[in-house]
Design goal:
The complex is a heterodimer.
Chain A: H1 16-35, H2 38-52, H3 56-61, H4 65-83, H5 104-118, H6 122-133, H7 138-145, H8 149-164, H9 169-175
Helix pairs in contact in A: 1-2, 1-4, 2-4, 4-6, 4-7, 6-8, 7-8
Chain B: H1 3-15, H2 25-36, H3 55-67, E1 103-105, E2 114-115, E3 122-123, E4 132-133, E5 145-147, E6 150-155, E7 158-162, E8 169-173, E9 183-185, E10 188-195, E11 199-206, E12 212-219, E13 232-234, E14 240-244, E15 247-251, E16 258-263, E17 269-274, E18 280-285, E19 289-294, E20 300-305, E21 312-318, E22 321-328, E23 331-338, E24 346-350, E25 360-363, E26 366-369, E27 374-378, E28 385-390, E29 393-394, E30 397-398, E31 400-407, E32 410-417, E33 422-429
Antiparallel strand pairs in B: 1-12, 2-8, 3-4, 4-33, 5-6, 6-7, 7-8, 9-10, 10-11, 11-12, 13-14, 14-15, 15-16, 17-18, 18-19, 19-20, 21-22, 22-23, 23-24, 25-26, 26-27, 27-28, 29-30, 31-32, 32-33
Helix pairs in contact in B: 2-3
Classes of the chains: A mainly alpha, B mainly beta.
Chain lengths: 179, 437
């Protein structure tokens, strides 16, 4: 009775596949900065893309799919921090495995970065990722987080102050690490 | 950015590693299929609240896996019927006797594949007009309509019927439904879907049972618009009008015959509306133009543009003129054009952006606009606001109320609350100023 949409168009919104292919890498990297590990980052990105799927037409028309996906990622991350991680105390972080061919220096740098980000409250961390990694403007960051531009500025200032005191991070920021 | 901010940005870009693997569409489809079977209220969307309601996204997921080439045999899980060749919908003329497009069937009888159970209505704190959530389904934001005593909406891959008294949802799968609302004409609900190759399918469903009662195919001339939004409309006599490439076709719903084609010059039609008296067809295209046609005779009677560089759509015709949406980037707003003349259009509402659609709805004799800071009821002839309610926020995020439909003396709207991950249909009292149609 019902017509299959045909191979190649299985109830899948136009342009969704192209977006996932083009942007999932960048979204995963943002997810990694938010959560500190790849499985959680994948969970975050998949959750956001699943939310975007049914409203893809509107998002494309508004030219806002990535902003929306990032908004869902941030809100999901904040919710996880509220519900899943309350009471958890981080006592250390296992280093990334070398399966991806990283040099030890890079691993150290990344561990230092994640340790510094772990010092931030969730909202400050989200602002750091959106503003300084995802290159979102203050107004875009405010929209993604559902707050005012002034609040974004305040979070950013407080985050920078905390990161300034994080062990080893200042040297990384000013000295650089080979990529 | 100051120096310290630039240094931090450089550091983040420099040492954040590449992911060991990428997320794929198949991953997301699997997530959707997995969510379908989970408990209500735990996940945002596109979940199905009731056991059987999980079938549609599961089918979508299966179909995606099919495309991934895992198993051609899985195609059989998505029921399939062969479609006959599609005949031409007529040449580039405006003849009223254009040849019929291929008719596929008119006697299909299958009912909905799934239906749900009633859930306990729950009040929404600060909701407009005493809003109460009556179900927990996820729909396409601009697709809720009322007709034949029920509510209808489009969900990903399905047409849904919502019982306004109980909130019970019944569902029937529809392949690739086009963005926009279904059209209810008498006891039939019509949905349009665009298929590869310019084939347009008009599916008719019984408004009570969701049994499919008709399926017609028409052919687009020229490219189908990539910004289709509200591509199907019905005249007061039941004639269906559907955007079909650089034309709009009028289709007799009882026979599937194309009775007229209305030609744009070159742009593809993205949205259509018919005046309440059935005399004028409005066609939106590009970014953004509205062409008016006389329904009888197909002569152009007007042509106006809104030069903002953004696409428009969601046309709604009222006795006073034309309503619709247009947007640039993240911003989208609702406009009102007296007599359908875009040169006289005025912005009447600003949408919230970021995927939250603000669209006009014409129901119960009034225009309703939500999706922004307020939910507004307006006079359809003058655009004057008759009633307005501020919309609540949850943890700083604006809650979404839009796509208002009036039936049985009450108003209904589609609702989403992102922080609490709730969505569904809300029931509201009609404000006194908007209670009479």
């Amino acid at each position: 009775m019902y017509t299959s949409p045909g191979v190649g168009r299985p109830y899948e919104p136009d342009g969704f596949r192209e977006f996932v292919q083009a942007r999932s890498g960048a979204l995963l990297r943002s997810g990694w900065l938010l959560t500190g590990d790849w499985p959680s980052a994948e969970d975050l990105v998949q959750t956001a893309l699943a939310a975007a799927w049914p409203r893809w037409g509107t998002l494309r028309r508004q030219d806002a799919p990535e902003l929306y996906v990032r908004k869902i990622m941030v809100n999901t991350f904040l919710r996880w921090r509220q519900r899943r991680w309350t009471g958890e105390i981080a006592t250390g972080r296992l280093p990334e495995m070398q399966a991806y061919g990283d040099a030890f220096a890079q691993i150290d740098a990344r561990q230092a970065l994640l340790a510094a980000l772990d010092r931030l409250p969730a909202r400050q961390r989200a602002v750091v990722v959106l503003r300084y990694f995802a290159d979102q403007s203050e107004s875009q960051t405010a929209e993604a987080m559902g707050c005012s531009v002034g609040t974004v500025k305040a979070h950013a200032a407080k985050a920078l102050a905390r990161l300034r005191d994080a062990p080893g991070l200042h040297e990384l920021m000013t000295g650089g690490v080979a990529s | 950015m100051n120096t310290e901010e630039r240094q931090l940005s450089d550091l983040l870009h420099r040492i954040t590693p590449e992911p060991p693997r990428r997320v794929t569409v198949e991953d997301v489809a699997f997530r959707l299929a997995s969510q379908a079977g989970r408990a209500p209220g735990r996940h945002y969307e596109p979940r199905r609240r009731f056991g059987g309601r999980g079938l549609v996204p599961a089918l979508a997921a299966l179909a995606v896996f099919v495309v991934a080439g895992l198993s051609a045999g899985v195609v059989a899980l998505v029921s399939h019927h062969s479609t006959p060749p599609v005949a031409s919908g007529g040449g580039p003329t405006t003849s009223t006797s254009a040849p019929a497009s291929a008719t596929v069937s008119s006697s299909a009888t299958s009912g909905p594949v799934s239906s749900g159970q009633a859930t306990q209505p729950s009040a929404i704190h600060g909701g407009p007009f005493g809003a109460v959530l009556i179900d927990h389904q996820t729909f396409t934001q601009d697709s809720l309509v009322a007709g034949d005593g029920a509510l209808f909406a489009i969900a990903p891959g399905s047409l849904d019927r919502i019982d306004p008294a109980t909130g019970v949802v019944a569902s029937v799968p529809v392949a690739s439904p086009a963005p926009g609302a279904p059209v209810v004409d008498g006891h039939t609900v019509w949905v349009v879907s665009y298929q590869p190759g310019g084939v347009i399918e008009l599916h008719g469903y019984d408004a009570s049972t969701l049994a499919q009662v008709a399926s017609w195919q028409v052919t687009a001339l020229g490219a189908v618009s990539s910004t289709v939004e509200g591509a199907l409309a019905a005249g007061p006599d039941g004639t269906l009008f559907v955007a079909a490439g650089i034309t709009v076709v009028a289709v007799d719903p009882s026979t599937g015959q194309v009775t007229q084609r209305y030609f744009l010059n070159s742009a593809s039609a993205s949205s259509v509306a018919v005046s309440p008296d059935g005399s004028t067809l409005y066609v939106g295209s590009g970014s953004f133009r509205v062409v008016k046609f006389a329904v009888n005779g197909a002569q152009r009677t007007g042509d106006s543009t809104m030069n903002i560089g953004g696409a428009g759509g969601n046309l709604v015709a009222t006795p006073g003129g034309l309503w619709g949406t247009v947007g640039i980037g993240m911003s989208e707003w609702v406009w009102y054009a007296p007599n359908g003349d875009l040169s006289r259009a005025a912005r009447v509402s600003q949408g919230a952006g970021a995927g939250l659609a603000s669209v006009p709805a014409y129901s119960g004799g009034h225009i309703w606009i939500g999706g922004g800071q307020t939910l507004v009821c307006a006079d359809p002839s003058t655009g004057q606001v008759l009633a307005s309610a501020n919309l609540p926020t949850d943890n700083g995020a604006l809650e979404y109320f839009s796509s208002v439909a009036v039936t049985g003396g009450q108003a209904y709207a589609y609702y989403e609350d992102q922080p609490s991950q709730r969505s569904g249909v809300v029931r509201m009292s009609l404000p006194a100023a908007c209670a009479s149609s």
